[in-house]
Specification:
- This protein is an all-alpha fold.
- The chain has four helices and no strands.
- Helix 2 packs antiparallel against helix 3.
- The longest helix is centred in the middle third of the chain and has 21 residues.
- It is elongated.
- The chain starts with 14 loop residues before the first helix and ends in a 19-residue tail after the last helix.
Length: about 110
């Protein structure tokens, strides 16, 4: 009997077919909408953490993964991408971007400035 590796995470739609095409086996189930909302958020954390150690040549693929999950979360929450872009620009106007590479060592305010 072949060893089983338990992943217990949301995966891209073609992953099961690719496993079968490689001659391997797997078990899948379809998540409810509420389960998928949670699992997609977990997936975003997983994908974002992979950016930390990504080499330059891997960075584009890792960023593409993050963007795919962000788009999937937006779609599952019925949020249109132009709405996200609008909020991104408003926040950039209010708080700035990351162009100056400022690293905040300490302040008299807690994280988030509230």
């Amino acid at each position: 009997m072949a060893k089983k590796y338990f992943h217990n995470k949301i995966v891209r739609d073609n992953v099961p077919d690719n496993i079968y095409k490689a001659g391997d086996d797997c078990e899948v189930r379809t998540l409810s909408h509420s389960e998928a909302r949670i699992e997609l958020r977990k997936k975003l954390i997983e994908e974002a953490s992979e950016l930390l150690n990504a080499e330059k040549k891997e960075l584009v693929d890792e960023l593409a993964d993050v963007l795919e999950v962000v788009k999937s979360i937006a779609q599952s929450e019925n949020i249109r991408l132009p709405e996200i872009e609008k909020h991104r620009l408003l926040k950039a106007a209010r708080a700035g971007r990351f162009k100056k590479r400022i690293f905040l060592v300490w302040s008299n305010k807690p994280a988030g400035g509230k």
